[in-house]
Amino acid sequence: MNSAFKFILFISLTFLFVKDAFPGTDPFTIELEQVPVMNVPTLQSFCYAKSNGKWLLLAGRTNGLHSFTTSPSFPSWFQNRTMYVYDVATGQVWSRSVYQDLSLDLADRLSSTNANYEQVGNKLYIAGGYGLDSTADSITTFGCMTVIDIQETIDAVINNQSIASHIRTVEDSRLINTGGELQYKDGYLYLYAGQRFYGDYLSPYSVQYYNYTYSKFQVTDNGSAIGITNFTLYTDTANLRRRDLNFLDAIYPDGSPYFANYGAVFTESTLPWLDPVYVNDTGYAVDNSFSQLFQQYDCGTLTMFDSTNGSLYTVFFGGLSYYYYDTVISQVVQDSAVPFVHDITYITRLSDGTSNQNILPVRMPDLLGTEARVITDSTVPNYSNWVIKFASLTGRTLVGYFYGGILADTANFGNSTTNGNIYAVYVTPTSIGINNISSEIPDGYELSQNYPNPFNPSTKIRFAVPRSSYVRLNVYNALGQKVSELLKKPLSPGTYEVDWQAQNFSAGVYFYTIEADGFTQTRKMVLVK
To answer: pTM of the predicted model, to two decimals?
Structure first.
């Protein structure tokens, strides 16, 4: 839910000149390809789980951004009251009303918007949500935990059977939350930030409370009843006044998992949050050294970790943003109305803990992204927390699908609806086939002779990096023309090996050159056909 500055009378626009907005040094490229689909459910602010090539979709809303001028701003008739199953391979859709099998109270909770959810194995955990309480005939924020057996529920929907025996719920006032995020790590669920909102959004009698907290707890489940145990609450009124944010799985340089909160709304001055928050087993830390300029509101994201250099890449697809790139004037523009944007950007968190954000040349096909999801493909290499193993990507790879969210017709103060298209998301690493052979720190830079040599059609090139460096590795023909860029990225100390695939090159003599921190070395190799 976006309160989107309904009281702002003056919109501030600031123009920032960008000398080279697209410097060409991105570690990967992103491509979006529309998937031909029919009868796909159009949802935003929904919950999802995936199993055996199928998605389970529920809750959320079937209209666009809520109204700022007419009441009710969240009409109950746009609540999604249906569970859907979507087959990724065939595009087939099955559906079943949650009111068909469940109690009225439980069905209301599973029809709410902006609930907090997380998939752990075959279980989908859902906490809170904002929607109609039919018994009280009022709009409220729910306080509950619901557990859904994913595969069993998918099978029941497909076979037109009752879903009731596969769903359990418990009331708990500590879980009254909407617009936060739910994550899982090492047996604990983390319910982060969010708010409590009672009444219709525009009602003079509505009440809003930010939670200023995150909690860590466990859920007991014997198959028929669930409970909340080992509950720990963290409170910070200065830094956790946040909602409608991205709270994402992440990987430290040593390979251990944590969570990263990027963005959120609103500060006390009704502006987006720019400083990230990192959460792990022992607590949290606010990163005041970095300002996230783009996409502070909940949007479709993709996270990848590069084990060769300890870098974490988080990609943001469209959404609402405090800054955006204006293609007409080739400048980055600040807009305090936080408009819908076409930008696709990524944040790199380097191994030394510093971060930067870059704009990719590719753009969203429409004003999409807000309250959408990128649902990763089950075949893509990933860590236990679903973060993609970037170093395992060997070329153009289908990593997932962009689904759902809000589709706007203009950046500010226009009309919107739900997105009815699905887009396949492809990632192509800029540097292909690099392997970290050893993390032992070498004595100096070194470029080894390729092997095999002569070769056909591929060869391996090994090199050593004694300290963190930005490394370039290029291949040139006998005329001195660069014919292949094998590597252009920061690397941690260690010994690496790169594959050069030369199937599309003519036989002859080639030279390969490494450049790193003032060091340059060139060697010769021979391609035979």
So the answer is: 0.83
